[in-house]
Structure formats: C-alpha cells, structure tokens
Amino acid sequence: MKLRDKVQHFLVVVLSRVGLKNLLLTAPGGYLRDSGWTKSARAGYPLDTAGRSQPWLTLPAICFLGDRLSADLTVFEFGSGGSTAWYGRHAGRVTSVEHDESWFEKIKNDLPSNVELVFCGTEQPGEFLDLVFRPLGDPLDYVQVLRRASAERYPDVVVIDGVDRLNCIAAVAAEAPDSTAIVVDNLEYENELAPAIELLATKGYRRLDFWGIAPGGLRLSDTAIFYKVGNSLGI
Fold first, then answer.
1. pLDDT tens for residues 144-183?
2. Is residue 48 within 8 Å of residue 23, measured between CB atoms?
3. What are the helix and strand counts (H, E) for the chain?
4. Residue 114 sits in which domain range?
C-alpha cells in the first residue's frame, strides 16, 4: 500500500470516529472529487475536475469509454449535451442530433471543430419521458438523421441518450455493421426499453452493463454497451 493510501485510510478512520467522515467527500484523491462528481453536483451539470463538460452517463461507463475511444473512431450521438464536447475530445469525428431547439442554441457555439450538431425538432406532444420511450413503430424524423449522416461511413459508435430511444435502437440494430458498438443510457428503465433490447438480442448483440451514479447524481443508473465480435471498442 502506498504512503498516500495509508494516510487516507488513517484519516477515514479518525474522522469516522469523530463523526466528520463527510469532510473526505471533497478531499484530493477521493473518487467523488476525482471523477468530477463533486464539481458536477455543485454546478448542476456534468463536469470533470478541470471544469470541462462530460457525459451524463454512469461514471464507470465514462471511464470505460474514455479509455476505448480514439482519434480514428467516429461517433454518432442521439441527444446532445455535456457528452457532445467530451466525445469530440476523445474521438476523431462526432455527429450529434438534438430535438430541443433552445438546448441546441445554447450549446452549438461551444463545441470542438470536429463536432457537427444537427437540429431536428419534433412537434410530438407530451412530456419528455413520453418522447423518450415512444413505442416501436413509426419513428420520428429525428431517427432518420443517422441514415443521412452514415451515407459514406457508418459510425463506429452510436450513443442513444435522447428521445425516441426504442426506434433509435431498432434503426441501428437493423442497419449497423458488426463493428459498430451501441451505447444506451438509462437501462434502469429496462421494462420501458424491453422491446428494443430484445430486438438487439435477436440480432446477436452481447451486452455489457455499467451500473453506478452519473456525475452529480444520487440515483443508481445503468449505461450499457451492446456489441458484437470485432467491434470498434475492442470488447
């Protein structure tokens, strides 16, 4: 055990005995601080320790993808956010589609040059979660943006973290080459996503789950990666 680890362990023991263990939540070397969780909780937005945006995926999934993405990979993202600039820093080319015009306007000018942000609005009524978990069937125009973006080359990684997720998953499952890895967030809502998840299984996709908390979040969540042998992430 390194000296630093011994000191940290000693401090945990001492502060626990006097009821002050919570002081260590923001201590240097602590997981919550080093992962950006603490800064994200304060900002109400997913940030790393340097104050740069990061995905609102689970922290284990962020670590995994950060190690696997590279400049020779392309990413397509359904649903933009703090993740969009982060993918731009970790991949060679990123295309992200957003359905919310106000959000699109807010982030469009603060992205790396290798990121293309596409607006595709929807006039569908209902709450946000109603749009997220629309039933399989007639997809929103939003789903078609991937087909236009992949005319020359299908993305190496497709991230599904926006609206109309079941139809997004179905479109990728039907058209993606075996090399494409599919990242789906919020699999804790597995019942709502079940028809699309079952479709991936029938197409031969394997599943790797990353349970944990998202930056600044308190609720247990699940980000999953669906893949086949020979996939772009080397799983």
1. 999 888 888 999 999 999 999 999 999 999 999 999 999 9
2. no
3. 10, 7
4. 51-227
How far, in Å, CA of 70 to CA of 53, rounded?
18
Give the pLDDT score at 127: 76
Where residue 10 falls (left for φ over 0; alpha for ψ -120 to 50; beta otherwise) is alpha
Per the domain annotation, does 216 fall within a domain? Answer: yes
Residue 106 belongs to a domain: yes
Q: Using CA atoms, how far apart are residues 159 and 175, in angstroms rounded to an integer?
A: 15
Rounded to whole angstroms, the Cα distance separating 73 from 32 reads 29
* Burial category of 15 from C-beta neighbours within 10 Å (exposed 0-12, middle 13-18, buried 19 and up): middle
CA–CA dist 216, 83 (Å, integer):
14
Q: Say if 27 falls within a structural domain.
A: no
Q: Domain holding 201: CATH number?
A: 3.40.50.150
Total of domains in the chain: 1
Say whether pTM exceeds 0.85: yes
- Distance between CA 57 and CA 116 in Å, rounded? 21
